């Protein structure tokens, strides 16, 4: 049951909710626009047509998705409006003053600095701080903002700027205006190459076409690392160079940050855990608003969803469907990535019966080439693992600074052909792609194999030797943990 208790006083038609049906309300999901975007008949979903054994799980999650989507549309008009929580909560500046709002259902008292908030008795607290007699805000730009929740000192969940662990009121006279447009075309034709970097270390590294911002939790920028104007300038510069800027959303870190925020055990998280409660209205509002905020305010081009396990949780699946629906609604060419695990149709569109992701990430080598799989290469990855990720995957996510392989890949255009033929010859993995052949020896022994074709040259090892048996056959030795590029 979707938790809507905080809206019963304001929205009478939510009081009756039985088996997923809103009582006495005509469905808002039957109009022509909706039917063009979604497919409600599970038997018509492309994924179910191709894999009928998935019908039951897809039908269950789609039914819940449409139930939640209908509630959102009835309350907020659209998912995009629902995801504008950052314009309603936190510190909202107007011509008349500053309004502070926070959702804290377990609070008995809430204050912002010296200003006491009032509650609607539904968990929402707010205070309006008017301008002074000289038409100036009573809180000045750069001032600290402290939320007192009962006897707890907190940083607002909706803070957009911090200095260390202290929320800051950010309202400069002049704000940076973007000069470039957001991502206009998905970086898929020649593979997505993502380099991980912290928000204060963004730079163009040759060979990559996307940068992933890591270790950022929710909306708040720490001005000890960068301020909003500097970040916008940096993103503008990266866009000018043709780079996409993605952001990692670490759901485990968000859960840890929000646990016991208002003193209760189950405000944003499930009681007794650090896991976010994705069945709650305000949890969905916060997470979806976080996505909308970064796209709208900072022109982020996409997101990687990390530390989220939806294996046995339909509420998480519904959240991810809503998130992908929102991303591709606001930004049709936006990119969404999720860590790979066994779950049906991660990278099929919602209309096809999937969750709507563009890519999934694998940390292991594979003998099956998957066009929508990215490979995550750790700092200590071997040369073989790097080459394997670049060639077998449509892209790579890495912390490394070794750009030689990426530069070579860019020069040779390895990924011009989308699909690859993968074979195994005496434990050596052979990948035929475009006009190149890649040989990987992942074993701890040197291997000598026979190939039914001639070799012109080994591109990545000058002077490498092989034996030409006849016009159609070649013998070559590949050392342990070595990878060769053959033309």
Automatic annotation (TrEMBL):
PANTHER family: 1,4-ALPHA-GLUCAN-BRANCHING ENZYME. GO terms for cellular component: cytoplasm. GO terms for molecular function: 1,4-alpha-glucan branching enzyme activity. InterPro entries: GH, Ig-like_fold, Ig_E-set. Signal peptide: none annotated. GO terms for biological process: carbohydrate metabolic process. It comes from the Eukaryota. The lineage of its organism: Eukaryota, Sar, Alveolata, Ciliophora, Intramacronucleata. This is Glycoside hydrolase family 13 N-terminal domain-containing protein.
């Amino acid at each position: 049951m979707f938790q809507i208790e905080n809206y019963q006083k304001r929205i009478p038609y939510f009081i009756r909710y039985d088996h997923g049906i809103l009582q006495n309300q005509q469905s808002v999901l039957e109009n022509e626009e909706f039917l063009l975007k979604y497919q409600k008949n599970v038997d018509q979903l492309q994924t179910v047509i191709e894999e009928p054994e998935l019908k039951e799980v897809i039908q269950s999650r789609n039914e819940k998705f449409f139930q939640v989507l209908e509630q959102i549309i009835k309350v907020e008009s659209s998912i995009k409006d629902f995801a504008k929580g950052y314009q309603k909560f936190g510190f909202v500046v107007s011509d008349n003053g500053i309004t502070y709002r926070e959702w804290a259902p377990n609070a008995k008292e809430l204050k912002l600095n010296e200003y006491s908030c009032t509650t609607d008795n539904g968990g929402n607290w707010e205070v309006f701080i008017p301008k002074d007699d000289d038409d100036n805000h009573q809180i000045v730009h750069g001032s600290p903002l402290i939320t007192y929740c009962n006897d707890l000192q907190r940083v607002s969940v909706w803070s957009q700027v911090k200095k260390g662990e202290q929320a800051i009121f950010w309202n400069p006279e002049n704000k940076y205006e973007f000069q470039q447009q957001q991502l206009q075309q998905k970086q898929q034709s020649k593979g997505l190459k993502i380099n991980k970097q912290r928000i204060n270390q963004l730079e163009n590294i040759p060979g990559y076409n996307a940068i992933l911002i890591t270790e950022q939790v929710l909306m708040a920028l720490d001005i000890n690392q960068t301020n909003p104007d500097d970040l916008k300038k940096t993103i503008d510069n990266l866009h000018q160079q043709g780079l996409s800027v993605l952001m990692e959303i670490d759901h485990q870190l968000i859960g840890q940050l929000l646990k016991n925020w208002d003193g209760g055990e189950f405000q944003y998280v499930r009681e007794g855990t650090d896991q976010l409660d994705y069945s709650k209205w305000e949890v969905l509002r916060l997470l979806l608003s976080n996505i909308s905020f970064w796209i709208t305010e900072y022109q982020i081009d996409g997101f990687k969803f990390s530390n989220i396990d939806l294996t046995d949780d339909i509420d998480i699946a519904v959240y991810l469907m809503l998130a992908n629906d929102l991303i591709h609604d606001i930004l049709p060419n936006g990119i969404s990535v999720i860590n790979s695990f066994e779950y049906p149709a991660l990278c099929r569109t919602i209309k096809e019966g999937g969750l709507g992701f563009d890519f999934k990430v694998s940390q292991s080598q594979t003998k099956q080439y998957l066009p929508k799989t990215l490979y995550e290469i750790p700092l200590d990855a071997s040369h073989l693992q790097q080459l394997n990720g670049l060639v077998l995957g449509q892209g790579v996510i890495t912390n490394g600074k070794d750009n030689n392989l990426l530069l070579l890949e860019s020069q040779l255009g390895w990924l011009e052909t989308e699909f690859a033929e993968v074979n195994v010859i005496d434990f050596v993995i052979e990948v035929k792609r475009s006009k190149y052949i890649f040989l990987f020896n992942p074993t701890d022994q040197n291997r000598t194999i026979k190939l039914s074709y001639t070799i012109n040259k080994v591109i990545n090892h000058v002077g490498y030797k092989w034996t030409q048996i006849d016009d159609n056959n070649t013998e070559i030795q590949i050392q342990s943990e070595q990878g060769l590029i053959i033309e």
